[in-house]
Specification:
This protein is an all-alpha fold. Helices cover 79% and strands 0% of the residues. Helix 1 runs antiparallel to helix 4 and helix 3 packs across helix 4. The radius of gyration is 19 Å and the shape is globular. It starts with a helix and ends with a helix.
């Protein structure tokens, strides 16, 4: 099976079953791309961090990047093969939810007062919260927080302080990201 076909299948699966947004689909993305051996856990952690700083959802940003990596490795035309892989992966992750949204949006509007539809949404809320919780656990690893006690302690302090600043003040999150990056540069 060609690498392009595997890439399309992986991102079709992510697009079809990635309910709850980017954070909720992180564990599925990791299982598909790290499990396939396309990238390492460290690269995955970097992709998540970069995806947070660039415009667009995590799923699409990761599809574009990983499609480029897989395409570059699989094709004989270098960066052109990478761009082709990016396009394939991005389209594979975008098209299924787009079609599902069109269909279900029409259905939900017609039956929005139905107890069946209301029950579905009541059931989906805790699932989405659980998937986001699993993303938090997925990102608490040595690639993000360091492998020594010093790195773990310093990273945890930066994380908690950043959260508190964003939660309790009106400081813009981008400024907090820049300050956390400067703190990491100084500490490490």
């Amino acid at each position: 099976m060609s690498a392009y076909f595997k890439l399309i299948l992986a991102y079709l699966k992510i697009g079809l079953f990635g309910f709850g947004g980017g954070y909720a689909m992180l564990s599925l993305i990791q299982r598909e791309v790290v499990g396939a051996g396309w990238i390492t856990n460290t690269m995955f952690t970097d992709i998540v961090a970069i995806s947070q700083m660039t415009p667009g959802p995590i799923g699409i940003n990761s599809a574009t990047y990983i499609g480029y990596v897989v395409g570059s490795d699989a094709g004989s035309m270098g960066w052109i093969s990478g761009i082709f892989g990016s396009i394939l992966a991005t389209m594979a992750v975008v098209i299924p939810p787009y079609i599902l949204t069109l269909y279900t949006g029409h259905y939900i509007n017609r039956h929005k007062d139905s107890p069946f539809i209301k029950g579905i949404f009541k059931g989906l809320r805790p699932v989405c919260v659980g998937l986001i919780g699993s993303a938090v656990l997925l990102l608490i690893n040595k690639d993000n927080f360091g492998s020594t006690n010093y790195e773990l302690t310093a990273s945890s302090i930066i994380c908690v302080i950043s959260f508190l600043i964003v939660y309790f003040t009106k400081i813009h999150p981008i400024l907090v990201i820049i300050l956390a990056g400067i703190a990491g540069l100084i500490i490490y």
